[in-house]
Amino acid sequence: MLKKSLELLRLEAAETGANTLKRSLNGFSLIAIGIGVIIGAGLFSLTGIAAANNAGPAVTLSFLVAAVGCAFSALCYAEFASMVPVAGSAYTYSYATMGELFAWIIGWDLILEYSVGAATVAISWSQYLVRFLSKYNLHIPAQLVMSPFETATLADGSVVSGFVNVPAMLIVLAITGIIIRGTQGSAWFNALVVSLKVLVVLVFIALGWQYIDPANYQPYIPQNTGTFGEFGWSGILRGAGVVFFVFIGFDIVATMAQETKNPQKNMPIGIIGSLLVCTVLFMLFGHVMTGLANYTEFKNSAAPVAIAIEKTPYAWLSSAIILAILIGYTSVILVDLMGQSRVFFSMSKDGLLPKVFSRVHPTFRTPLQSNLLLGLFISLFAGFVPIDVVGEMTSIGTLLAFVMVCLGVLIMRKKEPNAPRGFRTPWVPVVPILGILTCVLMMVSLPADTWIRLFVWLAIGLAIYYGYGKKHSKLGQEQRAGAAPLPAE
């Protein structure tokens, strides 16, 4: 239950030297990073799955419920990010408020969140690539674009099982190479593809609106099947839990605090700004998509936009949008991988993971070893796990982190009421409490097997903590030695 003091965290944030991350991001860069990861897998893939399996055309309401829950959490994140501008996001915040064990749980949870988030995007990227190449009579064997747990029906009627999703693995490894080269270069690359993605969403909304078939909205909220989460109002709620995945962008913005210029000012701008922009776009996008095609057509498809576009006369638009989505997806993978490696970096600096993960490359000033290991791990995840499994795992991991951050704001307002805050969450304790309740409600709505996977992952993490992290914790070693805590090396 050892806690880091705000003074110690601020000393860490002020560190300079060869083994520190380079500050190169401004407010615009952070908003672009947030939008870059928010507009991606959830919008272009999980939207169709949530509509087909849970909410029907009312998936737009699922987006609204998820966005409200996100808004409460985003305000809490913004306060913490302005108080403690250190890499690590919710992991660091939990260390200051609830102690080392809770910090480990959240850090381990964030690793899961970002791992499966990047894997989800990579899998959807692979499916869009197959669709794009098929338009030019280029075909990848079905066995090489699916996990071993999936099957596909070929044109001749035969059914084949997947072996490994090769394109999904390759794109993860390629993006890993980009982020190793440096944060500033990654930010420029991200800004370029984010601009393209926003343009794609706006074009889809503008051109698709005129071809909406009102019959596709009947019924707007399909009748519940008798099972919780399968349509009806419970389906909207479960749909919100599924599409909540799309809003993790502002969460990842918080991991970049130690690479941000003037983080007290720019972190709240990046977190709240990216959430506001994307919420409006998501609801309009979901409305157009379910208006162009009946929600039942999106069943088991990770490429619902391609299905919707086929309902319009713009044949050229289908190819253009799929190509733009492919390019845009790379920014989602990039930001997920960046965020995850920064959590690893922070945990390693605290001694909870081996030192190799906090070593910074002397030229690129990025955590090279973390990037390499995580890139390899996520590529294997993307190659061998189905998209519906990884999507739900990302949602529950994100929600748990949000709960802890909202709780942390309540604790810090009690413990450190006069601490400097570049941004203050309004209406405390109402906003944090509503954030906790909303996130817990969406967590409860997720399937039982998703909870089981979360508990298994956390059990593995606790075994590592008690086997390695607790013994090597710098804070713990300093306390046992009777020394005053010092900033991590």
TrEMBL record:
Its main location: membrane. The chain crosses the membrane at residues 30-52, 58-80, 101-125, 159-180, 187-212, 232-257, 269-293, 313-339, 368-387, 393-413, 425-444, 450-468. Pfam families: AA_permease_2. InterPro entries: AA/rel_permease1. Keywords: Membrane, Transmembrane, Transmembrane helix, Transport. It is found in: Membrane. It is a multi-pass membrane protein. One of its GO terms (molecular function) is amino acid transmembrane transporter activity. One of its GO terms (cellular component) is membrane. This is Amino acid permease. It comes from Hymenobacter metallicola.
